[in-house]
Amino acid sequence: MNNYGEIDNCLLRIRGFYQSLRPSEQKVADYILEQPDEVIHLSVTELSNRTGVSDAAIIKFCQRIGYKGYQELKIYLAKELVSPLKEIYGEVAPEDDLKTVKEKIFRINGQALQDTRKILDDEGLEQAVHAIAAASKVNIYGVGASGYVAMDAQLKLLRIGIQATSFCDSHVQTYLAALLSPGDAALAISDSGNTKDVVRALQVAKEQGAKTICITSVPDSAVCKAADIKLYTAATESIFRSGAIA
User: I need a surface site. Which of 10, 121, 125, 210 has the fewest CB within 10 A?
Assistant: First the structure.
């Protein structure tokens, strides 16, 4: 079963948990993401000296992202550096020529799909498919850029004969959620996992007995707590919305 807690790719796992980490843990994460080649040669005390974070906090960070301890994190990190994941999440820069801009956009979005495929839980995906297919009606929640993803999902479901509804207005989302009942389904889309209006709508849907599903890139986020079924994406947010692509 693939998810952030079980994927072998250490750097990808750290990115996935990043937003839910404590400030001290984010310091450790930042150092590992920026200096992975150095970290595999450091003891926990040496990493502590470089980050200003205690040995105990570093070990807790490792456990928080799914490793038994610092040594296991280093083992997986070393394996990854033997055949490193190509880093292509760089933003388009003002000095980039048109060809470079084109390559970056295509590669960012392509990598978003590839990384999401690696962590997508097949069992959870199957549960989501069955829940949506069996539902009398489906609500889809999202605001901002995720709202456009929600509308696209609505269109795709309508095309295959599933009664789906999506509104970007947060008040309407909550009203619709209150009208759901057992046998219905609700899908919330939030990259951060903490969009208040989306989380609230999903909570209301759950209270009405509907099957709740979320799509997010942040495990243990607020939207995950309201979801019966959790689907994770691996993309980092950028100006060109690789998160939306994933």
Answer: 125
- 115-132 pLDDT, tens digit per residue, is 788 778 889 999 999 999
**How far is Cα 48 from Cα 135, in angstroms, rounded to an integer?**
51
Domain with CATH 1.10.10.10 in the chain: 10-82
Helix boundaries (H) for 120-208: 122-134, 145-159, 170-178, 196-207
- Whole-number Å distance between alpha carbons of 112 and 89: 9
> How far is it, in rounded angstroms, from Cα 201 to Cα 194?
12
Integer Cα distance of 106 and 2 in angstroms = 25
Per-residue pLDDT reduced to its tens digit, 98-116? 988 888 888 888 877 877 8
- CA dihedral of residues 83, 47, 118, 139 (deg, nearest 10): -160
pLDDT in tens, 64-87: 998 999 999 998 888 878 654 444
CATH class of 122-245: alpha beta
CATH 1.10.10.10 fits 10-82, yes or no: yes
As given in the structure block, the two tokens for residue 243 are 């998160």
Distance (Å, whole) CA 197 – CA 191: 13
| pTM for the model | 0.70
pLDDT of residue 116: 82
